[in-house]
Amino acid sequence: MNGRPTEPPRPICVIGNANLDLVTGSVDDWPEWGTEVFLERSDFRIGGSAANTALALQRLGHPVGLVSATGSDAAGAMITHQFASALDWVAARPGPTSMSVGILQTGGERSFFSTNGHLDGLDAAFFSSALEDWPLAGAIALVSGGFALPGLMAEHTAFLERLRARGATIAIDPGWPGGGWTDDAVDKAHAWIGLADHVLLNDKEALGLSGENAVHAACRTLAPHMRADAALLVKRGPEGAACYRHRNYIIEQALPLDVIDTVGAGDAFNAGYLSAVAEGETERAALRRGIDVASAVISEFPRSGAAIFPEKSLAPCPTSSS
């Protein structure tokens, strides 16, 4: 915190995917087909980029609402139970909830096997209806995992325009396109970037989208597609994170730590960074908090629901009266 008197932090609306994750590991090499491997640890938990960010914001005590959906099964009920504040809007859709299995590699990398499940049906009409009564004016709206929501793809740009028309500050974390950076995926990402105030990418996404070989060069290449006052955030894993805005390039380094589980690291960074932005902190302070929140999350296994930096937590989210 910066020590100066501030107004209550702006709420953050996290829009996107929620599913269940089974994360297990670690392995040094991929086993042969038909064999069995016994692993040291596993964690069955809520996942999806949007839900991960919303959970981290909950742990920070920041006013947040998740706007998403689940399937109509026991997995969906588990997710819905976690998101029951007055700002949350999580619908149950017919069919199975999307699932992801994450296999951790020794050293921190991971691979995912995922099913789309209920996510295929989440389109712009669904999210627009869900947001009808959400207090977006003055809030930060993060659209997370756009490339993981095939139903939203066709109207994603128009959806962002509607969010801006309702007075929201827009942040996007589009993720990695399933088919790679085709010309169509690049065109879509450029359109989304042009409507965002905060563009959150990891280093591989920034390099893939820009066609560059270095993060700083990628930022310069993507800048013409951005709003004049927008910030481009690049998450660089153990090397920290960078912010490119108004042609200024700021880097904050990550501290060395024992990495256990990197699943959701970028989502946790988003929570820390955006919570600091919502408080009116400087870009460097927001970068620092994003890195610190991500570092705290990836150093624990299984994932905890305990507060992150409780001495700095903000007012708790409002709870539903139902």
UniProtKB/TrEMBL annotation:
Enzyme category, top tier: transferase
Entries under Pfam families matching the protein: PfkB
Domain Carbohydrate kinase PfkB: start-end pairs: 12-300
Enzyme Commission identifier(s): 2.7.1.-
Top-rank lineage group of the source organism: Bacteria
GO cellular component entries: cytosol
Keyword tags: Kinase, Transferase
Family matches, as InterPro entries: Carboh/pur_kinase_PfkB_CS, PfkB_dom, Ribokinase-like
Xref: PROSITE patterns: PFKB_KINASES_1, PFKB_KINASES_2
GO function terms (MF aspect): kinase activity
Descriptive protein name: Putative sugar kinase YdjH
The species this protein was found in: Martelella mediterranea DSM 17316
Gene from which the chain derives: ydjH_1
